[in-house]
Amino acid sequence: MTLKLFKNAHVFTPRTGPAPAAGAAQGEIFEIADGCLLVENGRIAALGERREVEEKRGGRAVEMEIDLDGAPVIPGFVDPHTHACFAALREEEFSMRLAGKPYLEILKAGGGILSSVRSVRAASGDELFRFSKALLDATLRYGTTTIEIKSGYGLDTENELKLLDVIDRLGRETPQSVVPTFMGAHAVPEEYGTKPDAYVKLLRDEMLPAVVKQGVARFCDIFCEEGVFSVPESRAILEKARELGLKLKIHADEVNDLGGAVLAGELRAASAEHLLAASDAGIAALAGGGVVAVLLPATAYSLKKPFARARAMIERGVPVALATDLNPGSCFCRSMPFVFSLAVLGMNMTPEEALTGATLNAAWAIGMEKEAGSLEPGKLADFVVLDGRSPAALAYASGSRPIRSVWKTGEKMA
Questions:
Q1: Which fold is adopted by the domain 78-365?
Q2: Which of 39, 119, 192, 224 is placed for a possible disulfide with 199 were both Cys, Cβ 3.0 to 4.6 Å?
Q3: Which CATH number is associated with domain 3-75+374-412?
Q4: How far apart are CA 231 and CA 189, in angstroms?
Q5: Helices (H), 6-154
Q6: pLDDT digits (tens, 9 = 90+) for 290-334
């Protein structure tokens, strides 16, 4: 049994309720000016003012006592949307986009996702692991202690299972908590370019059963977008995934208002993600279905597109989460502090709303709300010590790393 006491901490944390924080509750943050955390075997045993925590400690000896010098302490960031398992970067496409070539046009020409598919298929599992581990190491330095990783750069049964194996290994051999998502419906592969119906059939009849048998993925995601997968195709794939026991996510209305958000609400998906073009009807469907809106402001920034309508979503009762969308093409972002800053300065979220979005609501989006996303007894002792006076420092010091230290299960990581 190991016992550690973290004292003199200015704690800022949302609190877990029966559902993701929505509406006014998104901005409710619990604060302890002179706080202590008692950590036992990697989990929070007690949290509160020094006197309260000392009483709960009951005279037991601590292995280590750490003075945090009055610095702000927040939950470790939860990044609920990444594609952080791939084999090569795509900087040349960034230049193409800067020159005015639309993303969907790049994809149609065999670039984008399809370019990453070719490099992933050519890579071994060990090569993918080494490349992806370096990405996760960087995200940890920026305070991400829990991360979701999607497959989707294999687009056939063998290579999607290979990706999920690597993602599972990342969860076992890196410090972070890793949540795997199957996204074989990321694009239609080149070999099925003229017969997308056959690829949908392959997904339903072969890939999904193989993924469930493998037992790694917790969620199934799909790119519901013009030129990728239609609403009827998305529904057919997701309903099959649910039938087989996977939870649902949808890349919805990123480029066009195709109705992906409405579908997410109808299916009561765990989350709908991107939502740059989501309509009022789509936002209402998300609220009605209890769907977490996972917003990716760094992607809008990278693609030079208007940000998602976070304020409208919050005002209409949609719980909002924030994520990096770390991927090799549209958004090579590893920094949740940068995402936090864009949420405040670009999407007009308050620092309190952004903190909930980057921690607790993000944890709800990936089924980790009982383990991560807030500082509460029983949860993992994952937290970030900030260099500033409050969580607002993450937006105030925009573009920097206002972090003193990062702790995972009570162990210092960065």
A1: TIM Barrel (3.20.20)
A2: 192
A3: 2.30.40.10
A4: 18
A5: 50-57, 91-98, 103-108, 113-122, 125-141
A6: 999 999 999 999 999 999 999 999 999 999 999 999 999 989 999
